[in-house]
Every structure is written in C-alpha cells, then in structure tokens.
Amino acid sequence: MTPRFFYYGIVVSGSTRMIVGPSRQTAASDQELKDIAFELDIRQDDVAEFVSGMKQIIRLPMESMMQMMCAVNFMVNGEKLNLNDIVGGGDNPFGMEEARAEQRMAEMESTSETLHNSLAVEQTLMNIIRKGDVAALEAFVQDAPAVCPGMMAQEQLRQAKNTFIVATAESCRAAIRGGMDVEDALTSSDAYIQECEMLTDMHRITQLQYDMVLYYTRQVERVRRGHYATDLVRNVANYVQHHLSEAITTDQIAEHCFLSRQHLSRRFTQEAGIPLAAFVRNEKVEEAKRLLRYTDKTVSAIGLYLSFSSQGHFVRVFKETVGMTPKEYREKKRG
Q1: Which residues are CB-contacts of 292 (< 8 A; sequence separation ≥ 6)?
Q2: 107-154 pLDDT per residue, tens
Q3: Nearest residue to 61 (alpha-carbon basis) of 1, 17, 109, 16
Q4: Which of 152, 158, 180, 287 is deepest in the core (most CB within 10 A)?
Q5: Which H or E run includes 266?
Q6: How far apart are CA 169 and CA 243, in angstroms?
Q7: 165-218 pLDDT, tens per residue?
Q8: Residue 175's closest CA among 233, 226, 134?
Q9: Burial (CB count <10 Å: 0-12, 13-18, 19+), residue 68
Q10: Whole-angstrom Cα distance, residue 135 to residue 9?
C-alpha cells in the first residue's frame, strides 16, 4: 500500500512480473492526483490527462484485489492460495508456545495492573489531535507512559490490531472535532485500518499507529493554523487544502461557501484576523516549505506546482513571508 492508500500487487511467474492495480476503495480527489503527478515528475501539460486516467480506474476493496491476485497467480503458476496465505495468518505468529501464551494472558487478566490506565493518556492524546498541536505530540511521544488498553483479543497480533482500530476511530473523531473535513477524516480512517489488517509485525503496527496519529494532528494543524476556529474559516481552510495546486480565487471560495465575494472577504477577515488573499498565500507558502524540506523538487517546479505566475513571483512571495529565499530556506533546514 502506498502512502496515499493506493494498493497494488505483483504476481511473479518465472522472469515475468505482472502488476495488479493500482486501486483503492475510495475515490481520490483531483488535488491528491495532482500531488501524485507532481511527485512522479509528470509534465505539466500531461497532468490533466493523468488525473482523468486515474479517475477512470475501477475502485476495489483490498480483499477483492487480493482475490484477483490469487486468481491470476493460479492461472499462471498453478498455485492455489487464499487470503490467509498472503496475509500470513496463524494463531501464534511470534513463535510463543500456545500454553505460554495462554498462561501470560491469564496472568494479565488476573492482575490489578490491567485495570485500564489508558483514560488519562487517551484524553491527553485526543486533545493534542483536536488542537492540531504537532509540537506537543512530539514531546508527548518522547516520554509516553506505558499503557494497558484492556484485553480485546486472546492473541497478541489481534490484540495489537484491535487496539489500533480503536485508536484510529478515536483519532478520527478528534480530528473532525478539530475542524478536519469529515469525508477526508473517515476515508483516511478506513485506509489506515485496511493497512493495519495487512501487517503481521508488531513493530510495524506500532509505527503505523504513530504515523496515523501524526497525520491527523498535522491535518488539524493545517486547518487551524493561527488558532482559526470558526466554521467559516475551517470551511475555507479545508477548501484551500483541497486546491493548493490551483490558482485559487476569492470568487471560487465564495461560490463554495455560498456567500457573495464581498460578504466572504469581510467575514473572513473579521473571524480569522487576516485577509483571505493573505491566508491563501500563507497556506501555499507553508506547503512550499514542506516540499523544500522533504523533497528534492526544484524551486521552479514547486512554484509551478503551486500555481505561482512565475518563478520570480514565487521567490518574491516566499521571501516576503518567510524572510529568506526558497533556496536559503532549503539549505538552512537541511543543514
């Protein structure tokens, strides 16, 4: 599964490798597909065709994709597999003798230490997500207390997955309360749970859980940046996040919010404490900072992707906002 929740499989037959996919269960937005095109260095003139082509791919649940892979594998290799063979099930994947596993479970159930100590930790973490406080999350993780979440399964791997599912559902609700778009939050929740179900390694499940919490916290941070909290501002912020690679206009946002241009501009400035045009500019600059820091895309490519009119315009706006040029920012952050 890719970071954007597309999944695909590879069936090997001799020296031939057949790719099945990509697909995913939910539709990708135009902005997501434009992001992928940017990451793949697709020429700007071909992006519209790429987006159109990707939107025509049939969406399939992951289980259906895996069943398709099993069928293809049987046809070309004569090997009969089922979903359990691929996922790598088994009652005890960690090699612990069944008697020892049952004994340990009994001990944990009988001790007073298993009384749920997770409530305070859970409330702290959900509050961090709701506020979109990435710095607080990073500090929390550095000194996170041990947690006994309660027994939800008699087998360790299933226990870890059930714990992940509960954590994802709670994180999703916290993010929605923090202002994240409902559909985005629920779609991400489904995708994270699907990915977790495919894992057979406890360490990877733990890492995925941190990635999931960080994802939701960052999404809320982007919506609430500057402590914007009103419904109107959250609505505008979510719209901007879905159209970052476009030349966003006030008229487009006003139509989305069912308001006149003048009324939108006046209300947004009053409620956000910043003019709408400046807010859009700042959001684009924040995305540019992320791309400069974590990708190797050129300054010109980033400016073009974010729909600045020219490289010179991008550099000028970036320097006015950040206090240094994009090149200087990249050099500073990468040391």
Answers
A1: 299, 302, 326, 329, 330, 333
A2: 444 444 444 445 667 878 888 998 888 888 888 877 665 555 556 566
A3: 1
A4: 180
A5: helix 261-272
A6: 27
A7: 999 999 999 999 888 888 889 988 998 998 898 888 888 888 899 889 999 998
A8: 134
A9: middle
A10: 37
Tell me which residue range forms the domain holding 83. 7-87
- In 3D space, the residue among 194, 192, 251 whose CA is nearest the CA of residue 219 turns out to be 192
| Boundary residue ending a domain (72, 87, 102) | 87
Q: Are residues 202 and 167 in the same domain?
A: yes
Q: Token digits for 105? A: 């479970």
165, 193 contact by CB (below 8 A): yes
208: closest CA among 1, 67, 36?
1
Pairing of strands 16-23, 7-13: antiparallel
Bridge partner residues of 12 (DSSP): 17
Q: What tokens does 156 get?
A: 């360790």
Residue 96 located in a structural domain? no
